Amino acid sequence: MRNRDRPSKRYETLADEIEASIRAGTLRAGDRLPSVRQAAASRGVHASTVFQAYYRLEARGLIRARPRSGYYVAAVPPPPLEHASAPLGESIAVDVGERVFAILEATMRRDVVPLGSAFPAPSLFPLARLAKTMASTVQRLDPRANVDHLLLGNAALRRQIALRYLVDGLAIDADELVVTNGAMEALHLGLAAVTRPGDAVVVESPTFYASLQALEQRGLRAIEVATHPREGIDLGALAEVLERRRPAACWLMTSFQNPLGSLMPEAKKRELVELLARHDTPLIEDDVYGELYFGARRPPPAKAYDRAGLVLHCSSFSKCLAPGYRIGWIAPGRHLRTVARLKLSTTLTASTPAEATLAAYLEHGGYDRHLRKLRQALAGQRDAMLAAVATHFPAATRATRPDGGYFLWLELPPGADAMDVHRRALAQSISVAPGPIFSSRAQFERCLRLNYGHPHDGRVDAALAVLGRLARPA
Amino acid sequence: MRNRDRPSKRYETLADEIEASIRAGTLRAGDRLPSVRQAAASRGVHASTVFQAYYRLEARGLIRARPRSGYYVAAVPPPPLEHASAPLGESIAVDVGERVFAILEATMRRDVVPLGSAFPAPSLFPLARLAKTMASTVQRLDPRANVDHLLLGNAALRRQIALRYLVDGLAIDADELVVTNGAMEALHLGLAAVTRPGDAVVVESPTFYASLQALEQRGLRAIEVATHPREGIDLGALAEVLERRRPAACWLMTSFQNPLGSLMPEAKKRELVELLARHDTPLIEDDVYGELYFGARRPPPAKAYDRAGLVLHCSSFSKCLAPGYRIGWIAPGRHLRTVARLKLSTTLTASTPAEATLAAYLEHGGYDRHLRKLRQALAGQRDAMLAAVATHFPAATRATRPDGGYFLWLELPPGADAMDVHRRALAQSISVAPGPIFSSRAQFERCLRLNYGHPHDGRVDAALAVLGRLARPA
């Protein structure tokens, strides 16, 4: 099933065999696996082959290591979603507004279990610490700073952001950054800087609905390109579109894409940037989930490979530190001047107290500690939700297993209708984000995006049980 | 000279005669005028006629009453600018970006005397009090409020804004308001809600350069309509444009227009709204200076006369309370839903801590006291700047005498060149806003906008002396 087109390595074969035993129920949750030495002896392979197979199975969420005890079968996650999307048609006028808004508004009610929400739980953020920082920061604000910071935004904050990139190996000068009212404004500014009404823009399939809304507002056409749930946009398909359709720009999420959670491997990101450079096509890169990785280190954004200044890299603190402060930024490459001026003449600046507060918070060093805790919480919530989906949903339900962010993408069995699930779930005060809002042609009618950004408590689990029932074909 | 087309009343004739004596130097600054009784006797008129004439002269800034002492000639202000503008052509593509930005960026330097600035002095704002309010407010923020307030913005703040309107006799429900990132975003949202690229939009002549930038960004055409420096847009000219050109919207500042300082009389505002209703044409009303009146009460906005929901009324706290917080609002009438959704999909919300802070500040009642002080300071600074202009500028310089806001508009004598004055002033670290940035066709080449929002100290006075020299025709 896995790696169909690649010659299997021995450890992959072994991992696939064990996965099959788990899925068949031969091995059950809680069973202890043979030790590496035992397995190597009984199967006649090197210990390192077993070790690598176990490592793979752990990465797939199927087994877990307990220190000084060995490997155990985990709660079985749903089978993975492994096929790339197949977008309909090529390039059309975008008209998603009414559909998307109606659903978003419905999911904003406070009494609803927010599985369709785009935000993680507020309890995961250091809001009290931020409030303290703000309380002391605003008393020391230089009132003349307003004017100094008009063009690019708070200089101390830009320095802190640049410093974080530097630590992660990405050299962006503080003066190449523009502070914005969240990433959403950054993305809109990027789009305004590189497109004119009537242009075509490449997006992923499925894509974050806000990108479709942005295209609609600016009179742009969307070209949805096939995207793989683990590795992101299909570069072959993209190359063809660049050649034949000459889009004005691409708008992509290269790390932990919303809604798929896909992460483009580093080599693929590099290849993407080189491909776009050959076509002189700008990339609007939405990297708001880049800090929410569950692996060993931050995945570099595509911007890391940008030599031509063609990547307009956007991010924010809204998903990982301070929702509601509305502080984001853009590193617009060669479009810096245009973007800075567009911002100056639309919203002038971001909120000065919020900028100064985040600059102070970043400087005083609580951020990395907070992020470590946040990532750990999200990774645990992902596993819990995958286990609940495996328990409650029809057996043929497939799911992504993202290595970052806080969204699961489910494909329900044939016959299921995500819009219907959405409506019936909402009647029971549960929100979901149905697949059709992630496509200009209302594709993904069997898909749901679920938010695992909230602690997996009884309320969430009960909601998933309800959803699982609703997801059964009639 | 004044009221050329209206039959003069007796007190107006008397006032004009006295003004002529002052301008001729027969009466000089500091001279005491005859008492009302003396003047009535010597001129053979009723005392009430003299009283009304003196009242007019006081309103023109020419004389001042000293309690229990009588009327004295004030420092003579420059002659008033009394003729409406005569815009060139009708409707053209807007292309002002480069010109305006180059000038704005030049005026942002900290070492410059900011006579070209669009902001008043930070020292005029209760920044310490706001900081205290923020410090206590953010500690009590409900983290879930973010989601509740997504669509329209902080409910407590909207209630406070609605309450202020109610006190001023304008019934706007809190749920008819959308909180925005400053008035600038409100205006852009309004424009996006009621226009499509290629549409024509009516603006005043001269107009605030940001409106031209907004039209340019959205691919709209500008129709500049003749505007009178005291009473605002010419309704006759506007009626003709509505009839013949069918613009998609008007974007006007009905009170203390930037740059003219003109204030449309109440009857004229009502007539404007009725005229637009007959043509079903929306009005984007920029009312950011409405609270900065020097008269007895707040001038009602055009929104007060709106029965059809056609006025998209925009304002903010940036000019009168909290620059840098970036909190504005829009009352979009029948376009409420469209505007709320556009905001949701571009910047999501305004900054939550800033919203909550302003709600708390407004509730606890320091605002009216602050505004009274601010208005008094600005009115005094207006008079001081007018006196300095009279002293330092060529005699034929004409000036507006706005009854609110913080901008003077000067027309220099024939032969003067505002762009040249701007360049030479900047070389001496003085900024001005030259007339041509207020017109899509670079008209007003002899005009300057000066900011009297800064305390009139020696530095400002010296800068005005330099400007006065530069303003002399070569």
TrEMBL record, chains A, B:
GO terms for molecular function: DNA binding; DNA-binding transcription factor activity; pyridoxal phosphate binding; transaminase activity. Keywords: Aminotransferase, DNA-binding, Pyridoxal phosphate, Transcription, Transcription regulation, Transferase. Residues 8-76 form the HTH gntR-type domain. InterPro entries: Aminotransferase_I/II_large, HTH_trans_reg/aminotransferase, PyrdxlP-dep_Trfase, PyrdxlP-dep_Trfase_major, PyrdxlP-dep_Trfase_small, Tscrpt_reg_HTH_GntR, WH-like_DNA-bd_sf, WH_DNA-bd_sf. In the C-terminal section; belongs to the class-I pyridoxal-phosphate-dependent aminotransferase family. This is DNA-binding transcriptional MocR family regulator. It comes from Dokdonella fugitiva.
